[in-house]
Write a structure and sequence with these properties.
The chain is α+β, with helices and mostly antiparallel strands. Among the domains are: 150 residues, no CATH class; 99 residues, Phosphorylase Kinase, domain 1 (2-Layer Sandwich); 174 residues, Orthogonal Bundle (Transferase(Phosphotransferase), domain 1), CATH 1.10.510. It is built from 15 helices and 46 strands. Helix 7 packs antiparallel against helix 9, helix 7 runs antiparallel to helix 13 and helix 11 crosses helix 12. 43% of the residues are buried. The N terminus and C terminus are likely disordered. The protein binds 2-acetamido-2-deoxy-beta-D-glucopyranose (NAG) (11 copies).
Length: 864
């Protein structure tokens, strides 16, 4: 009846259609209370698209607190609420005036209002997207609910960088809870009390497209995206199957959930994190979470702890109590630090935030780590990585502990406790523990033992399971929650870290070290010999991202490419298992003091390497640019069969490192000039490096070595002294010498003198001409690798080097000679013209220090 009176007296364009109100706009003055619209369950605005959304004064769960909400009608999802932290009673009112919206309780006390507006309100409008907008008289927006998101975004809404979603306390209590989804300039991060527990970029289902600064997050009909450049560039994307409508919500339990709707049926299509144990409070404070295969996580208490109550709101230490963060500032608890102790959490423990946080101390021992925590009252626990000496402090609050399914890390967790705490120290966590009957204390040592036995058994079973997975070649020994969503076809064999430790005798025999880490020799149980590369120069990286690349590398099979046998991705460890090459790398054979490589062998190596590169560039589904072709990465097998190693690894670099990668990958002496200019890196970059390797095969020495050219002078009548490439000190930049000799047709002078003439001028000419074509400064003038193979095989005619694109070698040669002289004078062992060239990813040998293909673009353009 009241509804009827109200509507007729104000004469809105609202109309009754079988008891429903159909209007998407109202004008001031307007007042609404729950009772006025009780027939519509408090709803007084409906969006035009058949009422997909409504605005209502609503009490979720039928309780006594009322909120002004925008609701997705079909699913009953509250997509926005005005007075989330200040609910009103059933008699409270919403007022729309020319000054905006205000919400007051029945006694007239103001609970919420819109901020001051720049002009008078003409209308309140609910859009078809679900956006509640205050409009001025020109239909200009004065205020929009989309700009003040609560825990949800919908299609059409943008969550800008710096903004966040905040969870509700529970489904019915919309007060701001403890979980946040924050948009940073590079990611979307879930946090609990400042501790991160999930990142979009690290989720298995998300892909990082670009390194731009994020401007906002949005969902549309085909997925969730982090956008840059005003929406024209995607930074991170997660594709979802097309759907007309979807809602993304940070729910009260800390899950970020996306649901799609076709008609009225909603379907959950995404949840992050997928592993239930990564939810901060899944088992309460210090509760121990074990990821179960099917029924979700199970909770217990770590040894030495017991449950606060049967409802598992967490665990407290037995026989001691937990400090409050910064308790010492509270009255009456001036605790002396000798009362503090650390309760160890047993083995194989992890904490959700550790993957996302930085250690507070590096390379320290455990006592230093504990001292740090003792001296900082906000520190409540530490995790200590025994292998690296990294010390992680957990501050301000503690969540659940994760029982790590893989014993990959030497992580030791310690909870700070107060021993013999004075009874006047109020302890919020353990207040209920006093109710524990004495009998429990008597039984504790026994139950502790029992718990250990049970946990031990569980651990043993888990090990068996994960071993079986390995035998089956399954894709995962991750936390079991990931198992289903994590299968990547083509993934090579997955090894357990322990297996590789056994195989390599604890990484005893190091056989090399490359840009990505050290390589160790190992023997697998089937007696096959392998080379195990322990990757150290990668950041913390999503396992799926890693495995996707591994699947690509592992699926590449070519006789001239080193085969990837398998890999290991456990925790922070990344290892690659390759077939072992019994004759080592080309640099050792070619530049070493062993038996000299015969010409035919050199030619076979050149041809094999060219075929391997041609396959990487054109033979695979996905073009792979090696980026670091050099003798160290060309491995030799029986009969000097060449096999290229380290291909595909450049994609494993983390985004932070990939900017480094674009300037720094590759090795001085083999780097093409375009690395230094802004031109694109392409497969022609590998062609350049291959040309440099060819020249080294011809001469038997490093292009950049400072060895004098005396042998060449012995072989020639005129002597190298006339050559523009030689300085007075007899230092020669070999690529320039090759150009000079090519112009003069004196190829024999370029051949390795150790061959003592067991090669013809025609044979040398072939390699030198191919090499010079490969090192053209202009990438498009370099042949592709398929043509290089053709020229070497003789099936296509030899190319003619173009001197105009080789003149840069003269400049390199001059700098090379100058630097060599300075080096001699100063006795410097590593002269670098360009100190910003951080060489961390390259392998240098003493002979390759002075090398000037690594030069800035201005310096290159100088002499032209
Ligand atoms: C709205 O209410 C205010 C007082 O609250 C009054 O001054 C104003 O005239 C009213 N406007 C309309 C359009 O009724
Ligand atoms: C509204 O519903 C009718 C019938 O159910 C349908 O034909 C129409 O397309 C709908 N309109 C919108 C905007 O959803
Ligand atoms: C504002 O929008 C409404 C509905 O779309 C329209 O009827 C009205 O003419 C518009 N007013 C102005 C000033 O554009
Ligand atoms: C809702 O949660 C807040 C914060 O935890 C609490 O203060 C308030 O009492 C709760 N309200 C209800 C009705 O439970
Ligand atoms: C969603 O956004 C992405 C990224 O801009 C775009 O490629 C895609 O076409 C959009 N989907 C729809 C249905 O508009
Ligand atoms: C961003 O794009 C919108 C349309 O998508 C356009 O109206 C706006 O002017 C653009 N802003 C900038 C700064 O380019
Ligand atoms: C545990 O929770 C249930 C409902 O979830 C409640 O009925 C029960 O009283 C609780 N028990 C304790 C000991 O808190
Ligand atoms: C600490 O004690 C002083 C007086 O003893 C009191 O005024 C103050 O409010 C107390 N502070 C706290 C945080 O309890
Ligand atoms: C701390 O307590 C120990 C004994 O519990 C005592 O010997 C020591 O003097 C105390 N230190 C301080 C600073 O109160
Ligand atoms: C830990 O390191 C500190 C400082 O480096 C040293 O003083 C202390 O003796 C070490 N403690 C142990 C147990 O090794
Ligand atoms: C930590 O590492 C050291 C050697 O680095 C070893 O002796 C010690 O047993 C390890 N501690 C634990 C608890 O694993």
């Amino acid at each position: 009846m009241r509804t009827f009176l109200f509507c007729t007296s104000f004469l809105f364009y609202a109309a009754f259609v079988s008891g429903s109100l159909f209007s998407e706009s109202i004008s001031p003055n307007f007042t609404a209370s729950y009772y006025q619209f009780i027939d519509n369950k408090g709803a007084f605005l409906l969006s035009r698209n058949n009422g997909t959304f409504e605005v209502a004064i609503f009490n979720p769960g039928g309780q006594t607190n009322f909120y002004l909400c925008v609701i997705h009608v079909a699913s009953g999802t509250i997509i926005w609420s005005a007075n989330a932290d200040a609910p009103i009673s059933s008699s409270g009112k919403m007022d729309l005036t020319v000054h905006g919206i205000s919400i007051a309780d029945e006694d007239g006390s103001l609970k919420w209002s819109t901020p001051p507006l720049r002009s008078p309100v003409h209308a309140l409008h609910l859009t078809e997207m679900g956006n509640l907008v205050l409009l001025d008289q020109f239909n200009g927006s004065l205020w929009e609910s989309f700009h003040f998101p609560t825990d949800t975004i919908v299609i059409g809404q943008r969550l800008p960088e710096g903004a966040m979603l905040s969870s509700a306390v529970s489904t019915n209590n919309l007060s701001t809870g403890d979980y946040r989804l924050a948009i940073t300039d590079s990611d979307a991060i879930l946090q609990w009390k400042g501790q991160a527990y999930w990142k979009l970029s690290m989720d298995d289902r998300a892909y990082t497209n670009a390194n731009y600064v994020v401007e906002y997050m949005a969902i549309n009909r085909t997925g969730l995206f982090l956008f840059s450049h005003n929406g024209s560039a995607v930074v991170i994307q997660m594709s979802l199957s097309p759907s007309d409508f979807r809602i993304a919500q940070l729910d009260a339990s800390g899950h970020f959930i996306i649901r799609r709707f076709s008609g009225s049926d909603g379907e959950q299509e995404f949840v992050g994190p997928i592993n239930g144990c990564q939810i901060p409070l899944v088992c309460g404070r210090i509760g121990l979470c074990v990821a179960a295969q099917s029924n979700g996580p199970t909770c217990s208490c770590p040894q030495g702890f017991h449950e606060v109550s049967q409802n598992s709101s967490g665990c407290v230490p037995s026989g001691s109590s937990l400090p409050l963060a910064c308790y010492s500032t509270k009255n009456g608890s001036q605790l002396n630090s000798s009362a503090l102790s650390y309760s160890m959490l047993g083995f194989g423990m992890d904490y959700f935030a550790i993957d996302f946080s930085e250690p507070v101390r590096y390379g320290v021992n455990l006592s230093v780590c504990q001292e740090f925590c003792t001296s900082d009252c906000s520190c409540l626990a530490i995790f200590y990585d025994n292998s690296s000496g990294s010390c992680y402090a957990l501050e301000n609050d503690l969540g659940s502990i994760i029982s790590s399914t893989t014993y990959e890390d030497d992580m030791l967790g310690y909870i700070k406790v107060i021993v013999g705490a004075p009874s006047d120290v109020h302890n919020t966590y353990s207040s209920q523990s006093q109710q524990f009957p004495v009998i429990a204390l008597v039984l504790l040592p026994f139950t502790g033992l029992l718990l250990m036995v049970v946990l031990g058994f569980l651990w043993w079973r888990r090990r068996k399971v994960s071993n079986r997975e390995i035998k089956l070649g399954h894709a995962s020994s991750l936390s079991s929650g990931d198992l289903d969503s994590f299968y990547i076809p083509g993934l090579p064999q997955r090894f357990d870290l322990e297996e590789l430790e056994v195989a390599t005798d604890n990484f005893k025999t190091q056989i090399g070290s490359g840009g990505f880490g050290a390589v160790y020799k190992g023997t697998l149980p089937d007696k096959s010999v392998v080379a195990v590369k322990k990757i150290t120069s990668l950041g913390v990286q999503g396992k799926k991202e890693f495995c996707t690349e591994i699947a690509v590398i592992g699926s590449i099979h070519h006789v001239n490419l080193v085969k990837l046998r398998g890999f290991c991705a456990q925790g922070r460890q990344r290892l690659l298992v390759y077939e072992y090459m019994n004759r080592g790398s080309l640099d050792k054979t070619l530049f070493g003091s062993g038996p000299v490589l015969e010409w035919q062998e050199r030619f076979e190596i050149a041809l094999g390497t060219a075929r391997g590169l041609a396959y990487l560039h054109t033979g695979c589904e996905q073009k792979i640019i090696h980026c670091d072709v050099k003798p160290e990465n060309i491995l030799l097998h029986d009969q000097f069969q060449a096999k290229i190693s380290d291909f595909g690894l450049s994609k494993l670099l983390s985004p932070e490192q990939s900017s480094l990668f674009t300037t720094m990958r590759g090795t001085r002496g083999y780097l093409a000039p375009e690395w230094l200019t802004n031109s694109a890196i392409s497969e022609k970059t590998d062609v350049y490096s291959f040309g440099m390797v060819l020249l080294e095969l011809v001469s038997g020495r490093k292009n950049c070595s400072t060895r004098t050219q005396s042998h060449s002078m012995d072989n020639s009548n005129s002597g190298g002294g006339q050559s523009t490439s030689s300085s007075g000190s007899g230092v020669v930049y070999f690529p320039l010498l090759a150009l000079d000799m090519h112009e003069q047709g004196r190829y024999m002078e370029l051949a390795d003198p150790r061959l003592e003439g067991r090669v013809t001028s025609e044979e040398v000419e072939k390699l030198v001409r191919v090499a010079l074509c490969c090192v053209h400064e202009e990438p498009s003038w370099r042949p592709n690798m398929v043509n290089v193979v053709g020229m070497l095989e003789g099936s296509i005619p030899l190319g003619q080097p173009r001197v105009e694109s080789l003149n840069f070698l003269r400049f390199y040669g001059r700098r090379f000679a100058e630097a060599s002289m300075i080096k001699e004078e100063n006795g410097q062992s590593d002269f670098m013209l360009f100190p910003q060239a951080n060489d961390s990813t390259t392998t240098t040998t003493s002979e390759s220090h002075v090398c000037f293909s690594y030069i800035s673009s201005q310096q290159i353009s100088g002499p032209r």
